[in-house]
Request: fold
Amino acid sequence: MLDLPAMAAMKRRIAKNTAALLATRIINQVAGFLLVVYASRRLGVADFGRYSFVVAFYLVFEMISIFGLTNFLPREIGRRREEAGKYFLHAAILVGLVAVALVAVMNGVAAVYGLDREVYLAAVVVSFALVPAALGAAAEGTFIGVEKAEFITLFTFIKRFLVTALSIYALWLGHGILALLVVRAVVEFVAAAITVPFCLWQTKASGVRFDWAFARALFKGALPFAGLAVLASVYWRLDVLMLQRLKGPTEVGIYSASYRLMFLLTLIPESFMNAVYPNLARLWREDRGQFARVAERALRYLAAIALPAAAGAYILSRPVVMLVYEVDFARSVAVFSLIIFAVIPIFINNVFYRTLFAAEQQIKSMFILVVNIVVFVAAGFLLIPRWGAAGAAGALLVSLAAALIQNYWFTFATAYRSRMGGAFLRSALAAGVMGAACWLVRPYIPWPLVAAAGVVVYVPLLFLLHVLGRQDLGALREIAGWGARPAAGGGR
Reply:
C-alpha cells in the first residue's frame, strides 16, 4: 500500500502530465479547429464535406497503423520504466512495418470506393503519412509511460503550427483539397524526423539491440490492443463513412462542422485519463483498494464536468455554431444540439475503458466495440437515410449509450464495483439547476455572460450537494504542491 508521501508524489505527477496532455489536446484541437473554420469558409459545404471524408478515411488507417501502442506502451512502461528504450525501439519497428503495409491497403480501398479524381488523389497522397504518424505515436506512448508528457506538448505544437499555417496559406492561394493533404503528409515526415531521434536519445534506446524474442512478446501483448485499434478506427469513423455513401458530401459537411465543435470538449477526459492511466496500471498490481479509489475519483470529476458542459452547450447551440460557421452551415445548429450530449458517455466511458485496460481486461473492450459497431450500423441505416446528418448524430448517441452500459457492467464485474450513482445524480441535479438558470437569463444578456453565470451557479452547487468536498480540495492542494498532507473529512 502506498504511503502518504508516495501518494502526494503520484498526484503531482498526474497533475503535471494532465496539464501537459491537456495542453497538447488544446493545441491539437485549437489548431485543427482554426483550420476547419477557415477551410469551411473557403471550400463551401460540399467541398468541406469531401475534405472531411478524406481525413476520416485516412484516420481509419492511421489508428490501425498505431497498433494500439498508445494504450499498450504506457501500461507496460509504467510497470518497467527502466526498459522504456527497449520498448520504444521494438514498438517503432513494429508499427513502421505495419504502416508500410497499410499504405498499400489504403490505396487499394480508395481505388474501389468510388471517389472522384481529386478526392482519390488526396487519399493516395495522405496515405504515405501513415508511416511517420505511426512512428510518432510510438514515441507518444513511450513519453506517456515515462510520465514525460511535456515532450508530447512541445512536438505537437511544432507539428500543428506547421500544418495549420501552411494549410491556411495554401487555401488563401486558392488551392483545394489535394494541397491540404499534401501539407499534412509532408509535415508528418518532418515531425517524425524530429520526434523519433529525440525519443531514442531520451530513453537511451540507441544502445539497445534488437531482440526477436522480445519483439514477438511485444507483438503478442499488443495484439489485443491492435484489435481494439482496428475496431475503434472503424467505429469512430462510421458516421462520416456511412453519411458519404448514403447522403453525399453536403451532409458530411453539415455533420462534420457540428462534430468538430463537440469534439473540442473531449480533450478534457482524454488528457486527464492519459495521465492517470500509467498509475492505474501500477496500482492494479500493487494496491487494488487505491486503484478503485483513484478510478472512482476520476469518474466523479469527469461526470461533474460533462453534465454541465452538455447542458450549457445545448442552451447556447445557435449563437455558438453561428459564431464559428457561415450561414451555409445553419443546419449544423440542430445537429450540434443533438450531438453535444455525446460528451456525457464519452467522458464516463474514458474512465471505464482505461480501468479495464489497466486491469488487463482489454478483451472485454473488444467485445464492447464489436457490439457498438453493430448498434451504430443498425441505427445508422434506420436514421441516416431519413434525417441525414441529424440521423448520424442520433446513431452515435445510441451506440455510445450501449457502450456506457457495457463498460459499466464489465468494470463492475471484473475491475471494481463503482458506487458512482449517487454522485452522478447529484451532479445531474446541479447541472439541471444551472441549465434552468441559463435558460431564464439567455434572452436578456450576451451568451458569454450566460456561460459565465452558469459556472457561478454550478460550482457552489457541487459543494452544497456534496459532489465535491474538503477531501477534494486537499487533493488539489497536494497536486499543486501547496501541502503534502491531505485534508480530512469532506467529499464523497
Q: What stands out?
A: The two ends are 21 Å apart (CA to CA). The longest helix spans residues 4-65. Residues 1-236 form one domain.
